[in-house]
Amino acid sequence: MLLNIFKSGIFQWQYRRQLLVSLSATLITFCHGIALGWLSPMLPKLLSPQETPLTFSIDVNEASWLGAVISIGGISGNFSYSYLMNRFGRKVSIYALAVPHTCIWFLFYFAQSIEWLYVARVCAGLTGGGMFVVLPIFIGEIADNSIRGRLCSFFTLTMNTGIMVGFVVSSHIAYHVIPCAVVGLPLLYVFLATRYPEPPQQLIRWKREEEAEKSLRFYRRCDGPNVSKEAERAYQKELDEMRLAIQQQNKDSDDNGLSMSDFLTKRSLKALATGLVLMIANIFTGTFAFNNYMSNIFDAVHTQLDPNTNTIIIGAVQILGTLASIYLVDRYGRKILLIVSCAGSGIGTSAFGLYAFYAEEEKADLSAFSAWLPVTLMAFIIFIANVGVISVTMVVLVEILPQKIRAVATSFCLGCLSFFAFTSLKTFPLMMFHLGLAATMWFCGVVSVVCLFYVVVCLEETKGRSMYD
């Protein structure tokens, strides 16, 4: 059975290069995940004058800023990498992602004050903001329609794997050893990026026809000596469709340019509204803030297990949720996964809020449940969110936006995502402190219900949709 899995779907011979290139490109998301996961176990240490591994400690307000400044870098990364990608192509942008990420580990290692950590988190935001713009579009362009959803989901899988690794190393490895161990990964990522070509769509836009043909042959494995007639026909058909679509796009751009009226059509407005709702669901259902403040959350509900151990368990559950999404997204579609995910997130956060209410407000004796119930509820929330809201959001965003406005609208939506992330990370610890964990969780539950209503009523299924529609 296991052997059959590796002979089907994305593991089929004709998709092998698309899979390997997607994994190579998403190595940077794995690295980024390590930088994200680093914060949660490290934050309680930095807050304690006795346990801090540095020459200084921080207070709650500085901790909230340390969590939030990543989104300032994220907003800058969204727009700067969008410009870089449209001006210089996908490959240059992919190379450039390694620069701010490498700076993170040097700043962590040599940190002399909280400002060094702030700058490191801004660099993490630049990497993350750029990744969310560049990689879904890059993978969407090189991927066959039948496997695009699964390949785009590797973006989330590698990031969640990195987050779990970040949880582990930050909990169990000395502070100054971590940067030394991780800093080589972005260099490996840059080397791997030299091994695959620019997507054919970009080369056609640059009128480099011969290179575009070679690029498409590379990604469709039609460049060998024994290409079947059927594969050659499929390749030629796809190349012709690609040329026609891009020529029409260029003609429309030359005739009209990109104007405000392109964003005000019924289809564009609905797509933008859907994109914004998906960004809200991605952030305010709580999972992003949970990942950054996981150890603090478990500490607040007085779990009997070590908070950092719970955090590592949750990191593993994230990976399982993303694997489930990869298996399901091209089989059952995007909409059903988002429905299940929003509904499950609402139920899970409401239940966790109820437990937190009795743990914090009522001072009830929960010793019979504290060893397993908090981590079980959080595992359910994280798993169900990664099945849909986290993994599928970027797939749907790329597919639902009209081609003419896709690049600009994607940057706008991801800029909003970074702003929402900043708001969430800045307010989450303050809400926990002033309103309590229960009220904070119930707020996330309300957001999940609102997003569920929109997905059920307004979202169109995008499974199998062409990138040129």
Automatic annotation (TrEMBL):
<feature type="transmembrane region" description="Helical">
    <location>
        <begin position="371"/>
        <end position="398"/>
    </location>
</feature>
<feature type="transmembrane region" description="Helical">
    <location>
        <begin position="175"/>
        <end position="192"/>
    </location>
</feature>
<feature type="transmembrane region" description="Helical">
    <location>
        <begin position="116"/>
        <end position="139"/>
    </location>
</feature>
<dbReference type="InterPro" id="IPR044775">
    <property type="entry name" value="MFS_ERD6/Tret1-like"/>
</dbReference>
<feature type="transmembrane region" description="Helical">
    <location>
        <begin position="405"/>
        <end position="425"/>
    </location>
</feature>
<dbReference type="InterPro" id="IPR020846">
    <property type="entry name" value="MFS_dom"/>
</dbReference>
<feature type="transmembrane region" description="Helical">
    <location>
        <begin position="310"/>
        <end position="329"/>
    </location>
</feature>
<feature type="domain" description="Major facilitator superfamily (MFS) profile">
    <location>
        <begin position="21"/>
        <end position="463"/>
    </location>
</feature>
<protein>
    <recommendedName>
        <fullName>Major facilitator superfamily (MFS) profile domain-containing protein</fullName>
    </recommendedName>
</protein>
<dbReference type="Pfam" id="PF00083">
    <property type="entry name" value="Sugar_tr"/>
</dbReference>
<dbReference type="InterPro" id="IPR036259">
    <property type="entry name" value="MFS_trans_sf"/>
</dbReference>
<dbReference type="GO" id="GO:0051119">
    <property type="term" value="F:sugar transmembrane transporter activity"/>
</dbReference>
<feature type="transmembrane region" description="Helical">
    <location>
        <begin position="336"/>
        <end position="359"/>
    </location>
</feature>
<dbReference type="GO" id="GO:0005886">
    <property type="term" value="C:plasma membrane"/>
</dbReference>
<keyword id="KW-0812">Transmembrane</keyword>
<dbReference type="InterPro" id="IPR005828">
    <property type="entry name" value="MFS_sugar_transport-like"/>
</dbReference>
<keyword id="KW-0813">Transport</keyword>
<dbReference type="InterPro" id="IPR050549">
    <property type="entry name" value="MFS_Trehalose_Transporter"/>
</dbReference>
<feature type="transmembrane region" description="Helical">
    <location>
        <begin position="63"/>
        <end position="85"/>
    </location>
</feature>
<feature type="transmembrane region" description="Helical">
    <location>
        <begin position="151"/>
        <end position="169"/>
    </location>
</feature>
<dbReference type="InterPro" id="IPR005829">
    <property type="entry name" value="Sugar_transporter_CS"/>
</dbReference>
<feature type="transmembrane region" description="Helical">
    <location>
        <begin position="20"/>
        <end position="43"/>
    </location>
</feature>
<feature type="transmembrane region" description="Helical">
    <location>
        <begin position="431"/>
        <end position="457"/>
    </location>
</feature>
<feature type="transmembrane region" description="Helical">
    <location>
        <begin position="269"/>
        <end position="290"/>
    </location>
</feature>
<keyword id="KW-1133">Transmembrane helix</keyword>
<keyword id="KW-0472">Membrane</keyword>
<keyword id="KW-0762">Sugar transport</keyword>
<feature type="transmembrane region" description="Helical">
    <location>
        <begin position="92"/>
        <end position="110"/>
    </location>
</feature>
<keyword id="KW-1003">Cell membrane</keyword>
